[in-house]
Amino acid sequence: MTAVLPRTNREIRLAATPEGLPRPEHLAVVDTPMPVLRPGHVLVRNRYFLVFPGLRTLMGDEIDGVPLPPLRGGDTLFGPAVGEVVAVPPGSPMRVGDTVSHLLGWRDHALVADAECALLDGTLPDPVARLAPGAAAYGALTRLTGVREGDTVLVTGAAGAVGSLAGQIARVLGAGRVIGSTGSPEKAARLVSELGYDAVVLRGTGSFAERLAGAAPDGIDVLLDTVGGEQLAAALGAARPGARFALVGALSGQLSPERGGGSAPVPLDTFRLVVRGVSVRGYRGADHPEVDAEWTRRFGGWLRSGELSFPHTRIAGLDRAPRALPDLIEGRYFGAVVVEL
Protein backbone atom coordinates (compact mmCIF):
# COMPACT_ATOMS: atom_id res chain seq x y z
CA MET A 1 0.00 0.00 0.00
CA THR A 2 1.45 3.38 -1.00
CA ALA A 3 0.53 7.04 -0.60
CA VAL A 4 1.10 9.51 -3.45
CA LEU A 5 4.83 10.24 -3.34
CA PRO A 6 7.07 12.83 -4.96
CA ARG A 7 9.51 11.61 -7.58
CA THR A 8 12.58 12.97 -5.84
CA ASN A 9 13.87 12.99 -2.30
CA ARG A 10 16.03 15.56 -0.53
CA GLU A 11 18.79 14.74 1.92
CA ILE A 12 21.74 16.41 3.66
CA ARG A 13 25.15 15.15 2.61
CA LEU A 14 28.64 15.88 3.80
CA ALA A 15 29.96 17.89 0.85
CA ALA A 16 33.55 17.77 2.08
CA THR A 17 35.25 16.36 5.17
CA PRO A 18 36.02 19.36 7.39
CA GLU A 19 39.41 20.05 8.87
CA GLY A 20 38.40 21.08 12.36
CA LEU A 21 34.80 21.95 13.13
CA PRO A 22 32.10 21.65 10.43
CA ARG A 23 30.70 24.81 8.86
CA PRO A 24 27.56 25.25 6.75
CA GLU A 25 29.52 24.96 3.52
CA HIS A 26 30.56 21.44 4.48
CA LEU A 27 26.92 20.30 4.26
CA ALA A 28 24.75 20.30 1.15
CA VAL A 29 21.06 19.73 0.40
CA VAL A 30 20.97 17.20 -2.46
CA ASP A 31 18.08 15.97 -4.64
CA THR A 32 18.10 12.19 -5.09
CA PRO A 33 15.71 9.61 -6.57
CA MET A 34 12.95 8.46 -4.24
CA PRO A 35 14.02 5.20 -2.50
CA VAL A 36 12.55 2.07 -4.07
CA LEU A 37 10.39 0.02 -1.71
CA ARG A 38 11.59 -3.55 -1.13
CA PRO A 39 10.65 -6.49 1.11
CA GLY A 40 11.50 -6.16 4.78
CA HIS A 41 11.49 -2.35 4.63
CA VAL A 42 9.05 0.54 4.93
CA LEU A 43 9.20 4.00 3.42
CA VAL A 44 8.94 6.76 6.02
CA ARG A 45 8.26 10.44 5.50
CA ASN A 46 10.35 12.09 8.20
CA ARG A 47 8.64 14.70 10.35
CA TYR A 48 11.42 15.49 12.85
CA PHE A 49 15.06 14.62 13.33
CA LEU A 50 17.61 15.38 16.02
CA VAL A 51 20.75 17.44 15.48
CA PHE A 52 23.40 15.98 17.79
CA PRO A 53 27.06 16.93 18.44
CA GLY A 54 28.31 13.36 17.97
CA LEU A 55 28.14 13.97 14.21
CA ARG A 56 31.29 16.03 14.58
CA THR A 57 33.13 12.97 15.90
CA LEU A 58 31.91 10.87 12.95
CA MET A 59 33.31 13.49 10.55
CA GLY A 60 36.69 13.53 12.27
CA ASP A 61 39.74 11.28 12.28
CA GLU A 62 39.40 9.83 15.80
CA ILE A 63 36.60 7.27 15.49
CA ASP A 64 38.28 4.17 16.87
CA GLY A 65 35.79 2.38 19.11
CA VAL A 66 32.85 4.61 18.16
CA PRO A 67 29.79 2.35 17.62
CA LEU A 68 28.58 4.27 14.56
CA PRO A 69 29.92 4.41 10.99
CA PRO A 70 32.17 7.32 9.98
CA LEU A 71 30.99 10.11 7.70
CA ARG A 72 33.10 10.98 4.68
CA GLY A 73 32.62 13.32 1.74
CA GLY A 74 29.46 12.41 -0.18
CA ASP A 75 27.85 10.46 2.69
CA THR A 76 24.32 11.27 3.88
CA LEU A 77 24.09 12.33 7.50
CA PHE A 78 21.97 10.23 9.85
CA GLY A 79 20.53 10.30 13.33
CA PRO A 80 17.37 9.82 15.40
CA ALA A 81 14.17 10.67 13.54
CA VAL A 82 10.40 10.39 13.87
CA GLY A 83 8.15 10.04 10.85
CA GLU A 84 5.07 8.59 9.23
CA VAL A 85 5.01 5.36 7.24
CA VAL A 86 3.89 6.18 3.69
CA ALA A 87 4.51 2.88 1.85
CA VAL A 88 4.77 -0.78 2.88
CA PRO A 89 5.31 -4.01 0.92
CA PRO A 90 2.84 -6.92 1.15
CA GLY A 91 3.01 -8.72 4.50
CA SER A 92 4.67 -5.84 6.34
CA PRO A 93 4.08 -5.61 10.11
CA MET A 94 3.69 -1.83 9.63
CA ARG A 95 0.74 0.05 8.17
CA VAL A 96 0.56 3.27 6.17
CA GLY A 97 -0.03 6.08 8.66
CA ASP A 98 1.93 4.49 11.52
CA THR A 99 4.23 6.84 13.44
CA VAL A 100 7.70 5.36 13.90
CA SER A 101 11.19 6.24 15.10
CA HIS A 102 14.44 5.21 13.42
CA LEU A 103 18.01 6.42 12.79
CA LEU A 104 17.80 7.73 9.22
CA GLY A 105 17.17 11.41 9.78
CA TRP A 106 18.60 14.26 7.69
CA ARG A 107 16.36 13.42 4.70
CA ASP A 108 12.75 13.92 3.66
CA HIS A 109 12.05 10.20 3.14
CA ALA A 110 13.90 7.15 4.48
CA LEU A 111 13.78 3.51 3.47
CA VAL A 112 14.04 1.76 6.83
CA ALA A 113 14.41 -1.95 7.59
CA ASP A 114 11.57 -3.34 9.69
CA ALA A 115 14.01 -4.38 12.43
CA GLU A 116 15.39 -0.82 12.65
CA CYS A 117 12.00 0.87 12.89
CA ALA A 118 10.12 1.26 16.21
CA LEU A 119 6.37 1.80 16.24
CA LEU A 120 5.41 4.63 18.61
CA ASP A 121 2.63 3.54 20.93
CA GLY A 122 1.55 6.71 22.69
CA THR A 123 3.72 6.20 25.79
CA LEU A 124 5.00 9.74 25.22
CA PRO A 125 2.44 12.53 24.95
CA ASP A 126 4.21 14.14 21.96
CA PRO A 127 6.02 12.04 19.31
CA VAL A 128 8.88 14.58 19.12
CA ALA A 129 9.73 13.70 22.74
CA ARG A 130 11.01 10.39 21.35
CA LEU A 131 14.05 12.41 20.21
CA ALA A 132 14.88 13.53 23.75
CA PRO A 133 18.39 12.17 24.50
CA GLY A 134 17.67 11.45 28.14
CA ALA A 135 18.22 7.70 28.28
CA ALA A 136 21.97 8.03 28.89
CA ALA A 137 21.50 10.50 31.72
CA TYR A 138 18.74 8.38 33.27
CA GLY A 139 20.78 5.20 32.90
CA ALA A 140 23.90 6.79 34.36
CA LEU A 141 22.02 8.23 37.35
CA THR A 142 20.16 4.99 38.10
CA ARG A 143 22.74 2.34 37.16
CA LEU A 144 26.14 3.93 37.83
CA THR A 145 25.81 6.55 40.55
CA GLY A 146 22.43 6.16 42.16
CA VAL A 147 20.90 9.32 43.55
CA ARG A 148 20.24 9.28 47.26
CA GLU A 149 17.88 11.54 49.13
CA GLY A 150 19.61 14.83 49.79
CA ASP A 151 22.56 14.31 47.40
CA THR A 152 24.23 17.32 45.83
CA VAL A 153 24.44 16.63 42.09
CA LEU A 154 26.56 18.50 39.56
CA VAL A 155 25.61 18.35 35.87
CA THR A 156 28.17 19.75 33.44
CA GLY A 157 26.93 21.14 30.15
CA ALA A 158 23.58 21.63 31.85
CA ALA A 159 22.01 23.66 29.03
CA GLY A 160 22.73 21.02 26.39
CA ALA A 161 20.40 18.34 25.12
CA VAL A 162 21.48 15.77 27.73
CA GLY A 163 22.25 18.16 30.56
CA SER A 164 18.92 19.97 30.39
CA LEU A 165 17.22 16.65 31.12
CA ALA A 166 19.84 15.30 33.56
CA GLY A 167 19.28 17.96 36.21
CA GLN A 168 15.53 17.41 36.13
CA ILE A 169 16.00 13.64 36.37
CA ALA A 170 18.34 14.02 39.35
CA ARG A 171 15.74 16.13 41.12
CA VAL A 172 12.87 13.66 40.67
CA LEU A 173 15.19 10.84 41.81
CA GLY A 174 15.69 12.63 45.13
CA ALA A 175 18.62 15.03 44.81
CA GLY A 176 18.61 17.73 47.48
CA ARG A 177 20.66 20.27 45.52
CA VAL A 178 21.28 20.38 41.76
CA ILE A 179 24.08 22.48 40.30
CA GLY A 180 24.76 22.98 36.60
CA SER A 181 27.47 24.47 34.44
CA THR A 182 27.12 26.50 31.26
CA GLY A 183 28.94 29.22 29.35
CA SER A 184 26.12 31.77 29.04
CA PRO A 185 24.53 34.00 31.71
CA GLU A 186 21.25 33.84 29.76
CA LYS A 187 21.29 30.06 29.79
CA ALA A 188 22.21 30.06 33.48
CA ALA A 189 19.14 32.17 34.25
CA ARG A 190 16.90 29.77 32.31
CA LEU A 191 18.36 26.74 34.09
CA VAL A 192 17.33 28.25 37.41
CA SER A 193 13.97 29.75 36.40
CA GLU A 194 12.73 27.03 34.03
CA LEU A 195 14.44 23.80 35.06
CA GLY A 196 14.80 24.23 38.81
CA TYR A 197 18.59 24.28 39.17
CA ASP A 198 19.68 25.62 42.56
CA ALA A 199 22.89 27.17 41.24
CA VAL A 200 24.81 27.46 37.98
CA VAL A 201 28.57 27.76 37.53
CA LEU A 202 29.68 29.80 34.52
CA ARG A 203 32.72 28.66 32.61
CA GLY A 204 34.96 31.28 31.04
CA THR A 205 37.46 33.64 32.56
CA GLY A 206 39.01 32.78 35.89
CA SER A 207 39.05 29.53 37.80
CA PHE A 208 36.13 27.16 37.24
CA ALA A 209 37.22 25.25 40.36
CA GLU A 210 36.88 28.37 42.51
CA ARG A 211 33.44 29.17 41.14
CA LEU A 212 32.33 25.58 41.71
CA ALA A 213 33.56 25.77 45.32
CA GLY A 214 31.37 28.83 45.79
CA ALA A 215 28.30 27.06 44.39
CA ALA A 216 28.96 23.83 46.33
CA PRO A 217 30.78 24.84 49.55
CA ASP A 218 30.01 21.46 51.12
CA GLY A 219 31.11 19.50 48.04
CA ILE A 220 29.25 17.23 45.63
CA ASP A 221 28.04 13.64 45.91
CA VAL A 222 27.26 12.89 42.25
CA LEU A 223 28.65 14.14 38.95
CA LEU A 224 26.82 13.67 35.65
CA ASP A 225 29.49 14.82 33.21
CA THR A 226 28.88 15.63 29.56
CA VAL A 227 31.95 17.85 29.10
CA GLY A 228 35.16 16.50 30.66
CA GLY A 229 38.22 18.75 30.63
CA GLU A 230 38.73 21.29 33.39
CA GLN A 231 35.17 20.79 34.61
CA LEU A 232 35.81 17.11 35.37
CA ALA A 233 39.06 18.01 37.15
CA ALA A 234 37.29 20.70 39.18
CA ALA A 235 34.50 18.30 40.13
CA LEU A 236 37.08 15.93 41.56
CA GLY A 237 38.38 18.77 43.72
CA ALA A 238 34.85 19.29 45.06
CA ALA A 239 34.07 15.59 45.58
CA ARG A 240 32.90 14.42 48.98
CA PRO A 241 34.13 11.07 50.31
CA GLY A 242 32.45 8.29 48.37
CA ALA A 243 31.32 10.57 45.52
CA ARG A 244 30.11 8.81 42.37
CA PHE A 245 31.00 10.19 38.94
CA ALA A 246 29.26 9.11 35.72
CA LEU A 247 30.68 10.25 32.38
CA VAL A 248 28.23 10.36 29.48
CA GLY A 249 30.05 12.74 27.13
CA ALA A 250 33.31 14.55 26.48
CA LEU A 251 32.30 17.70 24.63
CA SER A 252 35.45 19.57 25.65
CA GLY A 253 37.38 17.29 23.29
CA GLN A 254 34.66 16.41 20.78
CA LEU A 255 33.97 20.03 19.94
CA SER A 256 37.52 21.32 20.11
CA PRO A 257 38.82 22.67 16.78
CA GLU A 258 42.31 21.50 17.78
CA ARG A 259 41.31 17.84 18.15
CA GLY A 260 39.92 15.15 15.86
CA GLY A 261 36.57 14.78 17.62
CA GLY A 262 37.22 11.49 19.41
CA SER A 263 39.48 12.26 22.37
CA ALA A 264 39.36 14.46 25.45
CA PRO A 265 42.47 14.02 27.62
CA VAL A 266 42.52 15.65 31.05
CA PRO A 267 44.87 15.27 34.05
CA LEU A 268 43.14 13.96 37.17
CA ASP A 269 44.45 13.92 40.72
CA THR A 270 44.59 10.16 41.32
CA PHE A 271 45.69 10.71 44.92
CA ARG A 272 42.40 12.51 45.58
CA LEU A 273 40.50 9.71 43.84
CA VAL A 274 42.04 7.22 46.24
CA VAL A 275 41.84 9.08 49.54
CA ARG A 276 38.24 10.19 48.95
CA GLY A 277 37.11 6.88 47.49
CA VAL A 278 35.63 8.50 44.38
CA SER A 279 34.28 6.18 41.67
CA VAL A 280 34.51 7.26 38.02
CA ARG A 281 32.62 5.25 35.40
CA GLY A 282 31.70 5.82 31.79
CA TYR A 283 28.16 5.00 30.73
CA ARG A 284 27.52 2.81 27.66
CA GLY A 285 23.94 2.18 26.66
CA ALA A 286 24.88 -1.21 25.19
CA ASP A 287 25.73 -2.42 28.69
CA HIS A 288 22.20 -1.65 29.91
CA PRO A 289 19.77 -2.71 27.16
CA GLU A 290 16.77 -2.50 29.47
CA VAL A 291 17.20 1.21 30.13
CA ASP A 292 15.62 2.60 26.94
CA ALA A 293 12.20 1.08 27.57
CA GLU A 294 12.31 1.95 31.28
CA TRP A 295 13.31 5.53 30.50
CA THR A 296 10.59 5.96 27.88
CA ARG A 297 7.92 4.70 30.27
CA ARG A 298 9.02 6.92 33.16
CA PHE A 299 9.68 9.91 30.91
CA GLY A 300 6.13 9.70 29.56
CA GLY A 301 4.73 9.70 33.08
CA TRP A 302 6.94 12.59 34.19
CA LEU A 303 5.97 14.65 31.12
CA ARG A 304 2.27 14.11 31.77
CA SER A 305 2.61 14.99 35.46
CA GLY A 306 4.69 18.09 34.71
CA GLU A 307 7.64 16.83 36.76
CA LEU A 308 9.87 16.97 33.67
CA SER A 309 9.86 19.05 30.52
CA PHE A 310 11.70 18.48 27.23
CA PRO A 311 13.65 21.68 26.49
CA HIS A 312 14.25 21.91 22.76
CA THR A 313 14.41 24.28 19.82
CA ARG A 314 12.61 23.44 16.59
CA ILE A 315 14.27 24.46 13.32
CA ALA A 316 11.81 24.69 10.43
CA GLY A 317 12.78 23.01 7.18
CA LEU A 318 15.53 20.84 5.74
CA ASP A 319 17.16 23.86 4.09
CA ARG A 320 18.07 25.27 7.51
CA ALA A 321 19.62 22.03 8.79
CA PRO A 322 23.17 22.69 7.46
CA ARG A 323 23.33 25.83 9.61
CA ALA A 324 21.84 24.09 12.66
CA LEU A 325 24.79 21.76 13.29
CA PRO A 326 27.50 24.48 13.41
CA ASP A 327 25.21 26.67 15.52
CA LEU A 328 24.73 23.76 17.93
CA ILE A 329 28.48 23.26 18.20
CA GLU A 330 28.92 26.98 18.88
CA GLY A 331 26.46 26.75 21.78
CA ARG A 332 23.71 28.90 20.29
CA TYR A 333 20.82 26.73 21.49
CA PHE A 334 19.21 25.79 24.80
CA GLY A 335 18.32 22.10 25.15
CA ALA A 336 18.01 19.75 22.19
CA VAL A 337 17.80 20.86 18.56
CA VAL A 338 15.13 19.30 16.37
CA VAL A 339 14.61 19.94 12.65
CA GLU A 340 10.91 19.94 11.77
CA LEU A 341 10.08 19.00 8.19
From TrEMBL:
Keywords: Oxidoreductase. The keyword Oxidoreductase applies. It comes from the Bacteria. Pfam families: ADH_N_2 (PF16884), ADH_zinc_N (PF00107). The keyword Oxidoreductase applies. Residues 20-339 form the Enoyl reductase (ER) domain. GO terms for molecular function: oxidoreductase activity, acting on the CH-CH group of donors, NAD or NADP as acceptor. This is Alcohol dehydrogenase.
